[in-house]
Amino acid sequence: MRTPSPDPTPDQAHIGVIGAGQLGQMLALSGISLGLSFTFLDPSAQAPAGRLGRHIQAEYDDELALEQLAVECDAITLEFENVPVSAVASIARHNQIHPGERPLSIAQDRVHEKRFFESLGIPVAKYHAIDSFEDLKSAVADLGYPCILKTRRLGYDGKGQVVVRHSDDLEPAWASIRGNPSILEQMIPFTREVSIISVRSTRGECAFYPVSENQHRSGILHRTEIHMDDPAQERAEEYARHVLDGLDYVGVLAIEFFEHQGRLVANEMAPRVHNSGHWSQNGAVTSQFENHLRAILGWPLGSTACTGHSIMINLVGIIPPRAPILALPGVHLHDYGKEPRTGRKLGHINIVADTKESCRKYATLIEQMIG
Amino acid sequence: MRTPSPDPTPDQAHIGVIGAGQLGQMLALSGISLGLSFTFLDPSAQAPAGRLGRHIQAEYDDELALEQLAVECDAITLEFENVPVSAVASIARHNQIHPGERPLSIAQDRVHEKRFFESLGIPVAKYHAIDSFEDLKSAVADLGYPCILKTRRLGYDGKGQVVVRHSDDLEPAWASIRGNPSILEQMIPFTREVSIISVRSTRGECAFYPVSENQHRSGILHRTEIHMDDPAQERAEEYARHVLDGLDYVGVLAIEFFEHQGRLVANEMAPRVHNSGHWSQNGAVTSQFENHLRAILGWPLGSTACTGHSIMINLVGIIPPRAPILALPGVHLHDYGKEPRTGRKLGHINIVADTKESCRKYATLIEQMIG
Predict the structure, then answer these.
(1) A126-186 placed in CATH 3.30.1490.20
(2) If contacts are CB pairs under 8 Å, which of residues 200-239 in chain A contact chain B?
(3) Residue of A27, A34, A351, A352 to mutate when probing chain B, most B C-beta within 10 A
(4) Predicted ipTM of the assembly
(5) How many CB atoms lie within 10 A of CB B180?
(6) What backbone torsions phi and psi does residue B151 show, to the nearest 5 degrees?
(7) Considering only CB atoms, which chain A residues are within 8 Å of B332?
(8) Which H helix or E strand runs over B39?
(9) Rounded to an integer, what distance in angstroms lies between the CA atom of residue A230 and that of residue A233?
(10) Which residues contact B175 (CB under 8 A, 6 or more apart)?
(11) A218-245, pLDDT tens digit by residue?
(12) In this structure, which topology does domain B14-97 adopt according to CATH?
């Protein structure tokens, strides 16, 4: 058992991170500037962040590895929400970990997540928990078509989801879900999808980034645009504050909403730094990565204000040649250093410009380059 | 001998850096985002940048280590100007290294540097090369008091310099220089010291950052302020362009000037990223570190425009507690992760604000905190 130090978060703290993907890498790039050092726990030898600190190569349920991480670090966090809750509990016996078990267990189960949003008065799409084909048929009878069947657990980037538009779709949909505990949700004919990146520190200080408008391609985030003075800002902040305070949450948390007839309907939340907040690396005074670290260390949060008009474009499957991209002013490349693979997020491009028009012009040019 | 690849600077290049101090660390933090990886050559086991890539722990004249660096990297650069010229020559036999032998050998000798500036029509203070006490006496007779005696080689942060104000100072000054080849310079009653960070790529593209106004304490840079539309900008750019083109230079190069009666008088140059350019990490569209990497890789240079009013303050000998610093808006801490030691540069703080007034207000608060 670690003896709590008199200063639980020393200025040159050593941070433990469960997961060593690109989010871990960007946390480290941000934190090393602040004088922090890092240890990552990740089973993959090729994990991008592994080279930016110590890499404990072990499975997420390896008790010895978890204890090692807990004991050698001053504060522990995670970069993806599917870390086993038991791993978080195991670390919590030795040291502080943020976010903790409760937000994680809620975010890992779409039914718990919906119920949690409802408990806070945050609108969600109508839904039913599905444990059998009978459940599915009666849920469809209630919700009508179209609706969407999702596994309760372990879905991401559109995986584990299937749209049900017609009674003929029911059997294939159920088969594709392989009988896993699922949720059937009414499909909302939304006008746009927005998300908010919020952050709350160990001292209870909260900050909210400007809402982003997100476009997906094949279930993967493709493009995020930030609108200063977005009409959805006030309501999104209100909901995010309910979630942060309701969970006594610490760190960055993202919530995705559908906008439907001027209302925000919560889709899901991610208890971590989030792809729709990557624009903040170049387009905000303080990035989501730095603010996540400030939050878990109890440091004052940094300003979330925009420094210009921002668009982020994901690089999926391929990183285009650099020279024509870097020739555009205000364009910043972030390459995660991963092996290219179809459908894999390899990097992103942040565009910051003085005006919405020039920002969109460069975004269009970049979309042409990436095809 | 390395076989030149058809694409000499692949997009995910491996960069070799001679030296692994804070400048190397900041180059790496910037380059890893761009998809680059790094190998550092540095004799110190504690060198800060060593943890951000492969660290070849060897002396700078270790021929085997130099060859290893040359052969395993796609492009090689350096983070301090006192790398032995023979080391650069040794690498140049195997691979490209920027900056190369000529700028380095000029920058390493204050007399060569002065002559080089003169050859380009860039004003310098009156000076004499000093090889003996007799030389010193006759030089003083020509230049008058006060003047400043500096070793020709290996001076930095005010080390190897002594002011001569009176004939009684001559013998102690000569003794303090220990008979090393030196230069006696007229002391210019300058109104301010400014520097310009310039960059030139392998393709000959040049870019210039806004001139910074620098204040020193005990010979060490203390504070840098950026004035947009500084009256010295045009002339400083003109001189920097002469230097860049005159050397067929590649990479970032800094030139320090004294401003005297509205004229710029060149003091010295640094063929590397420079402390007076650190503000660009948070206050410019593209940092000097990213532009140095873009330059040596032949990529288009990024915009050097300011994103606000910027002041940088060095943290020498001590890093103050973070919380009160980070509570100020637009304030960015850069901690090099080094062991504290009197007179050692441990980090810096960049302040970016919309107005000169608020930027200076925060700078004053920070100066009070660091004492």
Answers:
(1) yes
(2) none
(3) A34
(4) 0.93
(5) 15
(6) -65, 145
(7) 33
(8) strand B37-41
(9) 5
(10) none
(11) 889 999 999 889 999 999 999 999 999 9
(12) Rossmann fold (3.40.50)
